[in-house]
Design brief:
There is one protein chain. By secondary structure, the protein is an alpha/beta fold. The protein has helices spanning about 15-20, 50-55, 75-95, 110, 130-145, 180-190, 215-220; strands at about 5-10, 25-30, 45, 60-65, 100-105, 150-155, 160, 175-180, 200-205. It has a 7-stranded parallel beta sheet, with helices on both faces. A two-stranded parallel sheet has the order 7-8.
């Protein structure tokens, strides 16, 4: 029997691109407050309402939270921070033992000059969006450890389609993940039995050729590996001149 997985924020900038890699494996319940871009049927659920989250989460095996508001200082707190609390509170009360959370990487401002960065303290800065998501991360960590909820948080700086031909005139991005790799990471997270301390956050990126940020922690714990060596698309041809 397929796991029943609740997806909050199913119509936003992330979840629609993950469905091709999730739908064949899980019984998905899609929720949002706006229509789905591909006209898929959804349940209207507002994450700022705890009762709505609690009601739709009943009978689920896992919750994936892709909701986010960036620009509105009031709604960003209610969606990003209180929304995460509603998810974890509902999971604790309903006995749901798996939650997938997402957020910004929150380390580039402090570590962009370094190399081989795997698992370092998050540094969200003073921006309102970063702070609301950082608070959400700590709420998830606290609930995960208090209520034995296996919680995995994926953090990244950008998402996008896989390159399909050689890229010229630009370098590969330092903290971006392609959809196929995030699909794989989500499946691994949903299927893994447990993670250390009930909570782990993971750098999610597809391009490691820069040597700055690494997915080594995800490799060791989740068994994650980018589905292709994506930096190969950015290789440059070199013309050698001989006397």
């Amino acid at each position: 029997m397929k796991k029943r997985v609740l997806i909050l924020g199913a119509c936003g900038n992330i979840a629609p691109y993950l469905l091709p890699g999730l739908d064949p494996y899980y019984d998905l319940c899609l929720t949002d407050i706006v229509p789905h871009p591909d006209n898929k049927p959804i349940n209207n659920v507002d994450i700022t309402s705890y009762q709505q989250v609690y009601n739709v989460a009943q009978g689920m095996d896992a919750i994936m939270n892709f909701t986010v508001i960036r620009d509105d200082p009031d709604q960003s707190f209610h969606v990003n921070t209180l929304g995460a609390w509603h998810v974890m509170k509902a999971a604790s009360e309903l006995g749901i033992k798996k939650v997938i959370h997402t957020g910004p990487q929150s380390i580039r401002n402090a570590y962009d000059q370094d190399f081989d960065i795997v698992d370092v303290p998050r540094s969200p800065g003073t921006g309102y969006y970063g702070l609301t998501k950082f608070l959400a991360l700590e709420i998830c960590r606290t609930y995960a450890q208090a209520y034995d909820i296996q919680t995995i948080s994926f953090v990244f700086n950008g998402l996008g389609p896989r390159p399909t031909e050689r890229v010229s005139g630009q370098d590969f991005p330092p903290f971006t993940i392609v959809w196929e790799d995030l699909q794989l990471a989500c499946r691994l997270a949903l299927d893994i039995e447990s993670v250390p301390d009930n909570f782990q956050d993971f750098n999610m990126l597809s391009y490691e050729g820069h040597g700055k940020y690494s997915v080594e922690k995800a490799r060791q714990i989740l068994g994650f590996e980018p589905t292709e060596k994506w930096e190969s698309y950015f290789k440059r041809s070199i013309d050698l001149w001989h006397k």
